[in-house]
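To start, one record:
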Amino acid sequence: MENGGAVEGRIVLITGGAKRVGAAICRRLHAAGARLMLHYRESAGEARLLQAELNHARADSVALIQADLLDLQKLPAIVEQTLSTYGRLDALVNNASSFFQTQVGDISANDWEDLVGTNVRAPLFLAQAAAPALRKSQGAIVNITDIHAERPLKNYVVYSVAKAGLVGLTRSLARELAPEVRVNAVAPGPILWPDDDSFDELSRQRIISHTPLRREGSPDDIAKAVHFLLADATYVTGETINVDGGRHIAI
């Protein structure tokens, strides 16, 4: 990004920014002075509350856009609305993601469309739509991948494949969009558990026990890494930073 990579006064589009890790990314980048276009799909209440919180801290610094990222035709409009609202775009954070089990034998075409659609297709086509503006601003893209791109999660075949695809997309876009645009990724480990209770207490403790730092991380750990890649890592592109307590090196 211009100005040595600092995010103060810069425009950042964040998908899935209304809650969980996305909200932590929004809060940290906003605190660093960024103005945000916060995308959400169904979390309208959470999105409006977060917008009100951040705009109270700094007026007119957060705008909202609702869209289903599975609707390919709507993706360019997300970028267009960002540009019409703020006049420029300095960074894209592809955070939105579907996550659910897909066991071999029961995988459907809809499962594939949803998981690959949110985790690979939408980031690709959003990046493509944003590329002209990002080239103009010497901007950056950060994708939120997953430790399971490298270490597949049992019974989550399509999700693991989709996140592996996003890592590949990160590296490919880094080559395609250089030298004007940097493209990197952050791969979380055990940060937040799914809302659907698909991981019981025993499963959670087993995962933590196989994490060298022997504890969960926080959403802000991911937000800090995103901020670093946007603001400070001006000579880094095509890289995935593992923020997982060392789990990617554990046997």
The beta strands are 11-14, 35-40, 62-66, 91-94, 140-144, 182-188, 240-243. The mean pLDDT is 91.
